[in-house]
Amino acid sequence: MTLLDKTNLDINSRGNVVLVSRAVSALVNSHDENGLLVGNWSGNYGDGLAPWQWTGSASIFKTYLRSGGRPVKFGQCWVFGGVTTTALRTLGIPARTVSNFVSAHDTDSSLTVDKFYSDRGDQINGINGDSIWNFHVWSDAWMARHDLPSGYGGWQAIDATPQEKSMGKYQLGPASLEAIKNGKVNYAYDVGFVYSEVNADLVHWRLDSRSKFSWRKTQIQGSHVGRKMLTKMIGVLGDSDSENIIGQYKHPDGSKEEKLARDEAVRQSGLVPIFDR
């Protein structure tokens, strides 16, 4: 509740699980409203704890409260994800932490991760900020979505890791998994970004003066991103307690359903289908 008091949510809005969960995604990182946790990927953690030193969410919340609301140092995606799940559950919202293996970061809403090469085949860096991470962790929350068409309730992606701004803040979600799976990238909130995280094509471009756009597409890897999505299996403890839920996020790579979802995502985005295959 201390964190929620930092938002502009009025009493009525605090009864709206969609707005509350979206606010949580902004409050867990320190970029907006002087939130809970400072992200740090520099490798220098001298004035705080390294992200891997945290063993639970309780100590992070206690540190924040005892300091009078100063952001706690430091976190990376798995810390943001775990703390977000704890915050949502504390508010009575069913939640789970999920890990996406081979996770895309699409910075320009192209639904692709683009790599560029010279006419001699040397990679050119700095054209865009697209990247692919070995893994990325966020949270799913279960809720009704009366603001969307019927059938898009249930699990929703919520991500507090500060990646890209959404409506002026570092916040993400709730993004309906059903919408992500079926390419409904215009549905609220941030469905397109999560769609790319699990389903972006990796596209290679080569400089070509004869091409209309000065670049020639040379390679498309359509099944590189979103290899598996793991969460803890209910009722199981030990080394075999993970469950692969990637089928809740995307259709099987290469399937007719996946192509239809991709075509829908391109259509809703207004993009030229540069990655037809």
Describe this entry's structure for a reader.
- The chain is globular and about 65 Å long.
- The chain is 24% helix and 25% strand.
- It is built from seven helices and twelve strands.
- The mean pLDDT is 94.
- It is of the alpha+beta class and 277 residues long.
- The strands form three sheets. It has a six-stranded antiparallel beta sheet with strand order 8-7-6-3-11-12, with helices on both faces. A four-stranded mixed beta sheet has the order 5-4-9-10, with no helix packed on it.
- The chain has a domain at 77-269: Transglutaminase-like (Coagulation Factor XIII, Chain A, domain 2), CATH 3.90.260.
Question: Any chance you could write out the topology, listing elements then pairs?
Answer:
Layout: H1 17-27, E1 37-39, H2 58-66, E2 72-75, H3 77-90, E3 95-105, E4 112-117, E5 123-124, E6 131-143, E7 154-158, E8 175-176, H4 177-181, H5 191-199, E9 201-207, E10 215-221, E11 228-232, E12 242-244, H6 246-249, H7 256-269
Parallel strand pairs: 1-2, 4-9
Antiparallel strand pairs: 3-6, 3-11, 4-5, 6-7, 7-8, 9-10, 11-12
Order of helices and strands: HEHEHEEEEEEHHEEEEHH
* Major beta sheet, strand line-up: 8-7-6-3-11-12
Radius of gyration: 20 Å
Largest sheet: 6 strands, antiparallel
The proportion of strand residues reads 15-25%
CATH class of the domain at 77-269: Alpha Beta
Structural class label:
alpha+beta
Distance N terminus to C terminus?
49 Å
Low-confidence stretches: none
- Shape, please? globular
Determine the CATH superfamily of the domain at 77-269.
Transglutaminase-like
Instruction: Write the CATH architecture name of the domain at 77-269.
Output: Alpha-Beta Complex
User: In percent, how helical is the residue content?
Assistant: 10-25%
Tell me the total number of β-strands: 12
Fold-level CATH name of the domain at 77-269: Coagulation Factor XIII, Chain A, domain 2
Average pLDDT, to the nearest integer?
94
Number of helices: 7
